[in-house]
Amino acid sequence: MIGDPDGTSESLQDLADEMNDPSQGLTNLKSWNCSGGADRQYRSSDGTLTIRTELLHFDDDSDASGWASGFRFTDGTSFSVPGIGDAQGRAFDPSDAEGAGSIVGWSHDGDVMYEIEIDGVGRIDRSLLGPLMRREEQLLSTGH
Predict the structure, then answer these.
(1) Which end of the chain is more exposed for a tag (fewer CB within 10 A), N or C?
(2) What's the half-sphere exposure (Cβ side, CA atoms, 13 Å) at 90?
(3) What is the dihedral of CA 3, 53, 128, 74, to 10 degrees?
């Protein structure tokens, strides 16, 4: 576990500060009726990967869906995440086997948009993302 095992609450400003243009990001978050979020990080059992989950809470499903569908990265390679309705994935492969690589997946469930990022060395196996995203949707739907 990295940080608080229950995660860390994030204000709108915290979320905006993670964006390329925090001022515009804050305006956009407010226009989509985002009320804040949460973040949690941990390491894989073998210590080779760092996994980060970020949740953004919106007023309703429509706002979460709209935010998720407009979520974009300018770099990386797009890929699909099987078994998750409207999920999108992006891979950031290093130029060599020893470089830092990552994959990111995002979707929404109800009024929550979620993003899962997996970081490590080398090309990260894209199939790791699906089970984590399915687990996140289960947590969001059932609470456990």
Answers:
(1) C
(2) 13
(3) -120
104: left (phi over 0), alpha (psi -120 to 50) or beta: beta
Whole-angstrom distance, CA of residue 79 vs CA of residue 67: 19
Using CA atoms of 92, 11, 137, 68 in order, give the dihedral in degrees to the nearest 10. Answer: -60
- Asked, for residue 3, whether it belongs to a domain, the answer is no
CA 35 – CA 44 distance, rounded (Å): 30
Q: Look at the chain and report how many structural domains it folds into.
A: 1
How are the residues of the chain apportioned to helix, strand and coil, as percentages rounded to the nearest 5?
Answer: 30, 35, 35
- pTM given for the model: 0.93
Alpha-carbon Rg for the chain, nearest whole angstrom, is: 15
Q: Are 106 and 90 in contact (CB under 8 A)?
A: no
Token pair, residue 62, equals 């429509």
Predicted confidence band at 144 (pLDDT cuts at 50, 70, 90)? confident
pLDDT at 2 over 90: no
